[in-house]
Amino acid sequence: MKKIIIYFLSAILILVVCGYGLLQISKSRTFQFFGSIVNRVDTEEKVIALTFDDGPETHTNEILDVLQEKQIKATFYVIGERLQENLEIGQRITDEGHELGNHSYTHQRFLFKPLSFIDSEIQNTNQLIREAGYEGAITFRPPYGKKLLGLPWYLNKHNIETIMVDVEPDTYGTTSDFFVEYTIANTKAGSIILLHPFCETCSEQRKAVPLIIDALKEKGYTFVTVSELLSRR
Ligand SMILES: [Zn+2]
Questions:
Q1: Which structural domains are found in the chain, ordered by start?
Q2: Which residues surround ligand 1, an ion (CB under 5 A)?
Q3: Percent above pLDDT 90 for the chain
Q4: For residues 25 and 163, what is the distance between their CA atoms, to the nearest angstrom?
């Protein structure tokens, strides 16, 4: 009887440890089971990529105005269903020389999802990105950074690169001053910076965008799109 209890507790312990390990892997920025995953690029050159997730929405135009004024290029990881509703904003992004990346069609966690779901989420969004006029290679950023088996397997099979991030200020604070300070302190050559400035309650992030650009320019950084950054590998 005593032995059975020990076996039972051991089995539970093993399940908990494996579950915890898989959870950590599912949100890792630097490891996945299939294909390459990029959270920054190793380079001596002071080039960096500024990325914006979850658009396009009305506030995307404000950010595009800032980028135009500051004369820099960025990458927008768009949600397919939002792009469908705001295709003209997607076209503006492309017309102004920025990059469009795929951030899924409905922005759900890609854990334990069937391949048919993964396929339609990615292909529907890729098609809309093409309709918006973007002609370059399309990379993918998983919603909430979550991926485990099916998604990396699918992306690898279709030669789509998984792009994560190494500087994400809104994970650690809420004010524009903090976003600027954190970004300046943590950005290095080859960094991929992520901001979420489009939601109604994201005014602090919108406020931070021009300040971050000015401060990083002053430090000698050049802004490039994700594809340009990847070409420096
Ligand atoms: Zn997102």
A1: 32-230 (3.20.20.370)
A2: 53-54, 143
A3: 79
A4: 15
